[in-house]
């Protein structure tokens, strides 16, 4: 009779994801994951083809985590891209290592657009909102405002951004308004 698996693939993935979230992707090694999961490296390599396969699983879990974060973030703004921007900046502040992995990576796995748009088509919804507000070139609006949003988020990730949510919201509305004209 076969022995029951006590360390599952999902358990390993969850441990590796927590490690990525706390310590960064660069600290995920088979030895470290095994140590945190209280097992040998054997269950890791029984569950995943190799470490790249595990890292890809962690990455996909991080993309889904960002989508859930964005979906749960309060949508208080009417100006296009402001809700997405507020969530993105807050994510950078609260989830530094995941933000770094997804949006400031050493190796690009998915484009910024693919991650932001997700299954919910977040960017497409924001573009439609811009069109409804009379924006003639919502793609250009997105690029202009996103430069500000990404810069603020990167500053937030590094701890160099000290504006409150109220100040950030006002700034995003102002930037959006100036580009809508």
In words, what does this structure look like?
The structure is a single chain. With 181 residues, the protein is an all-alpha fold. It has two domains: 48 residues, Arc Repressor Mutant, subunit A (Orthogonal Bundle); 119 residues. The chain has ten helices and no strands. Helix 5 crosses helix 6, helix 8 crosses helix 9 and helix 9 packs antiparallel against helix 10. The protein is elongated and about 60 Å long. It starts with 8 loop residues before the first helix and ends with a helix. The model has no long low-confidence stretch (mean pLDDT 91).
Which properties best describe this structure?
181 residues; mainly alpha; Arc Repressor Mutant, subunit A; 0% strand; elongated
Q: What topology does this entry show?
A:
Elements: H1 9-23, H2 30-37, H3 42-47, H4 51-72, H5 82-94, H6 96-103, H7 112-117, H8 122-132, H9 138-158, H10 165-180
Helix pairs in contact: 1-2, 1-4, 1-6, 5-6, 5-9, 5-10, 8-9, 9-10
């Amino acid at each position: 009779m076969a022995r029951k698996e006590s360390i599952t693939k999902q358990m390993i993935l969850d441990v590796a994801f927590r490690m990525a979230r706390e310590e960064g992707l660069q600290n995920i090694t088979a030895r470290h994951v095994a140590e945190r999961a209280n097992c040998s490296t054997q269950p890791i390599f029984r569950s995943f083809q190799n470490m790249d396969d595990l890292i890809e699983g962690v990455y996909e879990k991080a993309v889904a985590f960002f989508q859930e974060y964005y979906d749960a973030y309060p949508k208080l703004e009417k100006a296009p891209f402001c809700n997405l921007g507020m969530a993105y900046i807050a994510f950078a502040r609260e989830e530094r290592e995941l933000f770094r992995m997804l949006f400031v990576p050493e190796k690009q796995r998915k484009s910024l657009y693919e991650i932001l748009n997700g299954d919910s088509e977040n960017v497409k919804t924001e573009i439609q909102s811009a069109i409804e507000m009379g924006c003639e070139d919502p793609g250009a609006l997105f690029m202009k405002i996103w430069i500000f949003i990404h810069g603020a988020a990167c500053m937030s990730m590094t701890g160099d951004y000290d504006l409150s949510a109220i100040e950030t919201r006002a700034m995003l509305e102002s930037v959006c308004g100036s580009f809508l004209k």
